[in-house]
Amino acid sequence: MANEEIIQTLTEMGFPLAKVNQALEATDNQGLQPAMDWLLAHADETTGPGATDTAATPTEESAEVAQSLRCNECEKNFKSITEAEYHASKTGHTDFAESTEEVKPLTAEEKAQRLAQLKERMAKKKAERLAQEAEEERERERLRRTSGREFTRAKEEIVEKQILRDIEAKKREKREDQLARQRIKQRIEQDKKERAARREQERLTRQQSPMTTDVVMPPTDVPIVHTEGFEQARIQIRPTEGPPFTHTFDADAQLDQIYDFVRAKTGAENFTLMTTFPRKTLSIDQGGETLRKLGLVPSAALVMSYPY
After folding, report:
1. Are strands 279-282 and 245-250 parallel, antiparallel or unpaired?
2. 127/216 Cα distance (integer angstroms)
3. What spans are recorded as compositionally biased (Basic and acidic residues) (predicted)?
4. Would the N or C end of the chain have less CB density within 10 A of its end CB?
5. pTM of this prediction?
6. In a 3-state reduction of DSSP, which class is residue 236?
7. 295 neighbors 195 (Cβ within 8 angstroms)
8. Distance between CA atoms of 282 and 302, rounded to whole angstroms?
9. Hey, CA dihedral for 154, 158, 159, 164, is it positive or negative?
């Protein structure tokens, strides 16, 4: 940590550990320079009983006095027991001995050099921290963009799938319409062929039959209409005035429904509907009969007529 480097540097510069801690506390751990300024401003003050905890006290009985404590593991000397204890707590070293070698205080030049080195180390650590934070921010931004792209891609895939479903539905609807038109066309063609065949048969019958009033000709006004397989009847109404109009009814609907539809469409009340070929009147008395039974399936044209 930065405070540990500050403590080590200040103690190596000759400041007592207790006073260094006091300086850091007094300056709210604002850094090396404020702590040094405080130490220089309070150089003459003591910090209590621990301020003079030297490794040994000179006595008259000893010619050589212990001037420091030496760590035999790393061969570093310390001015006080407090500094040695701090060193032991940080390094785990336990082999200490008294030494007559005096720990000389750093000169002003050495202090300045130590301060510059500490500032350089602190600046390097700050730069590393900022670089790491920038890298973490770039990684967060990358993850955010990746998540955004994945979300956008997922939305686009949903839209594309919906478009494909819509296209397929339209194609299916178009195919069904084409098949329906084809079936209707085939039915119309078949109906034409059947009517032509009936007319030809009738013509041949008339030619082969003797011209006599006693012979009863088979009815020709009601052609055979195949209504099997048809569920709807497309009815065209031709009024005496105005354009014709068309409506599709259920094949099993009753004739009354056509009369009701024409009344609502034209406003007419007293009228009669009739087919054009074969010519046949569909009176209101037949209103309960179905369109299928009346031969109006799959399609028919009805003419409106009015009584004179």
Report:
1. unpaired
2. 120
3. 172-205
4. C
5. 0.31
6. strand
7. no
8. 9
9. positive
Q: All domains of the chain, ordered by start, with CATH?
A: 2-121 (1.10.8.10), 232-305 (3.10.20.90)
Burial label, 5 (beta-carbon count in 10 A; 0-12, 13-18, 19+): middle
Supply the DSSP string of 50-98, one letter for each residue: GGG-BS----TT-SS---EEEETTTTEEESBHHHHHHHHHHH----EEE
Burial per residue of 176-215, b for 16 or more beta-carbon CB atoms within 10 angstroms, e otherwise: eeeeeeeeeeeeeeebeeeeeeeeeeeeeeeeeeeeeeee
Give long-range contacts, CB 8 A cutoff, 24+ apart: 51-59.
Answer: 51/16, 51/18, 51/19, 53/80, 53/81, 53/82, 54/79, 54/80, 54/81, 55/79, 55/80, 55/81, 55/84, 55/98, 55/99, 56/98
For residue 279 the two structure tokens come to 């010519």
Element (H, E) at 144: helix 108-208
Instruction: Give the separation between CA 29 and CA 31, rounded to whole angstroms.
Output: 6
Q: Are 3 and 24 in contact (CB under 8 A)?
A: yes
φ, ψ at 246 (rounded to 5°): -125, 145
Per-residue pLDDT of the chain (308 residues; tens, 9 = 90+): 467 778 877 877 778 888 888 988 999 888 888 888 888 777 666 665 444 444 444 444 444 677 788 899 998 887 777 778 878 887 889 888 888 877 777 677 877 787 787 778 778 888 998 999 999 999 999 999 988 888 888 989 999 999 999 999 989 888 888 888 888 888 888 888 888 888 888 888 888 765 544 444 444 444 555 566 789 999 999 998 889 999 999 999 999 999 999 999 988 888 999 998 778 999 888 989 999 999 999 999 999 998 76
Query: What are 244's two structure tokens?
Result: 């014709």
CA nearest to 237, candidates 195, 278, 273: 273
Task: Please say whether the beta carbons of 80 and 55 come within 8 A.
Answer: yes
The one-letter code for the residue type at 263 is R
